[in-house]
């Protein structure tokens, strides 16, 4: 049975290292998977506020984002880290989407990864997102913290043998969990 896998990075940067990591991860999926990559910038939203929601309702882009997720079997999400948490842009997208449909990740298996230029590998944002995604019904089946991105990733390729082995193992586990 074919599986539809949706991938997106939680970054609004045009030079996002997490977009690069996402492409690498999605390219590793079995050939019988149908993959789709979306750009979170296509779902621009005002900053969430109760008053805005009361006056204007939930913006259409939150519904579109939730619908895109619903149309797929599983997700690969790469996230960045700003000051030990998700970027404000991505957190806002998640906040609005959960206002449209609280369990917008229900039944979705998720491979959650984060890259950073530093040695921490965005581990704090990974921890936060794993907890948040479970609140919204998602099941994070694999996580990957990718540290020192510019040292370990060159021209679309993971050059660190230990990271390469870890990624291969985790993608295989994710593929087994979603087949």
CATH superfamily: Flavodoxin domain
| Number of domain modules | 1
Number of helices: 7
CATH architecture: 3-Layer(aba) Sandwich
Question: SSE order in H/E notation?
Answer: EHEHHEHEHEHEEH
How much helical structure, as a percent, in the residues? 40-55%
In one word, what is the shape?
globular
Give me the side-by-side strand order of the main sheet: 2-1-3-4-5
Regarding quaternary structure, how should these chains be classified? single chain
Number of strands: 7
Strand content: 15-25%
Summed over residues and divided by their number, the pLDDT gives a mean of 96
- Residue ranges: pLDDT <50 for 5 or more in a row? none
Q: If you compute it from the alpha carbons, what radius of gyration comes out, rounded to the nearest whole angstrom?
A: 16 Å
Can you identify the CATH class?
Alpha Beta
How would a textbook summarize the main sheet? 5 strands, parallel
Distance between the termini: 7 Å
Structural class estimated from helices and strands: alpha/beta
GO molecular function, one term: oxidoreductase activity
InterPro entries: Flavoprotein-like_sf (IPR029039), FMN_Rdtase-like_dom (IPR005025), NAD(P)H-dep_reductase (IPR050712)
Protein name: NAD(P)H-dependent oxidoreductase
Pfam families: FMN_red
Describe the 3D structure.
It contains seven helices and seven strands. By secondary structure, it is α/β, with parallel strands linked by helices. The protein has one domain: 3-Layer(aba) Sandwich (Rossmann fold). Helix 3 crosses helix 4. Residues 4-143 form the NADPH-dependent FMN reductase-like domain. It comes from Zunongwangia pacifica.
């Amino acid at each position: 049975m074919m599986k539809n896998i949706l991938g997106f990075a939680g970054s609004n940067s045009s030079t996002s290292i997490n977009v690069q990591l996402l492409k690498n991860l999605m390219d590793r999926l079995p050939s019988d998977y149908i993959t789709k990559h979306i750009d979170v910038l296509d779902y621009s939203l005002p900053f969430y506020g109760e008053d805005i929601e009361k006056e204007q309702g939930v913006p259409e882009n939150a519904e579109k984002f939730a619908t895109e997720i619903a149309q797929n079997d599983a997700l690969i999400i790469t996230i960045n880290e700003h000051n030990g948490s998700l970027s404000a842009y991505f957190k806002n997208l998640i906040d609005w989407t959960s206002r449209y449909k609280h369990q917008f990740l229900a039944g979705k298996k998720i491979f959650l990864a984060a890259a950073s230029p530093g040695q921490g590998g965005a581990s704090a944002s990974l921890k936060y997102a794993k907890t948040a995604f479970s609140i919204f019904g998602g099941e994070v089946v694999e996580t990957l913290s990718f540290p020192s991105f510019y040292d370990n990733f060159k021209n679309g390729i993971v050059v660190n043998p230990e990271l390469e082995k870890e990624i291969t193992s985790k993608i295989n586990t994710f593929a087994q969990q979603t087949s």
